[in-house]
Sequence to fold (361 residues):
Amino acid sequence: MTAEGPLDGMLDQIVARHAEVSSILAETRLAPAEFARLSKEYAELDPLVAEVRALRRAEGERADAVAMAEDPASDAEMRALAESERASLAARIAELRRAIQIMLLPRDEADSRNAILEIRAGTGGDEAALFAADLFRMYQRYATLRGWRWETMEVSETGIGGFREAIASVSGRDVFARLKFESGVHRVQRVPATEASGRIHTSAATVAVLPEAEEVDVHIDDKDLRIDVYRSSGPGGQSVNTTDSAVRITHLPTGLVVIQQDEKSQHKNKAKALKVLRARLYEMERQTREAARAADRRSQVGSGDRSERIRTYNFPQGRVTDHRINLTLYKIDKVMAGEALDEIVEALIAEDQAARLAALA
Fold:
């Protein structure tokens, strides 16, 4: 795709198909399903064709500038102006070609899906649990800033404000596409509130981001499930603790276990637990299919050990470092508030795009 010939041929085909679909939609009476399918195709092609047209205009302008610069009848001032324009247009054309190549990259079919976000305390005891709670709130704030819907599904508290485990459902535009790079071990370096000597502690929490699965994506046989109901424990009020509303679902073929007890209704807890289980099974299938990713969902978060990390949050120095792309931001407060998290996410997306473009070369 790096050679202009093959890319240009592909772009010509895309523009022709865009025109063909536009004509069919305008002139043909279609069944509702066919109309919906073609409308979706047209909407997906439209931004790409707009970039292609911008590229063609820039190439035409560059051809004019080259002709003027090489025209012996042009005076020196006009030739100098044309040379400057030619250089500027060459840079613009390169920029447009790269943007188009990125738009043509195969899209992860899960990118447009909602996500299940799971956070667990790793190495570090109470401080790790407190950090897990901080991460959970960071993502909740980030979701709010992006206009996503956040639903807390399960929280296992430590009693001092920390979370042993927390699970949320996040819904909205391109949720999984933006959150999928958050999976892994997050390390924190700070002085715990309980540390009298002021010594810096290092702790860790694991984050797993799973694309939300529909029932049609993952078929679960009832015979493969063991469902246990029991009395809920922990916060929730008297009615939670005096009824058998908590649900534990075990998927026998894989051994996956999901516990849900946030709701007072056993039915609601069962529905939430099945939603999480479906997402975990779907992610396992995705990772098996995709050679570029781990074959088992546990590999994306490691063991929770301090040495395995994708990102470090150093509070004394006010910095956040993503080790995969060697990016450091000295604005930890804004990152934890969700405000600056996009700077890291955008850099990770750009790095992924660059790596995939290089693979096509």
Observations:
- The chain has a mean pLDDT of 84.
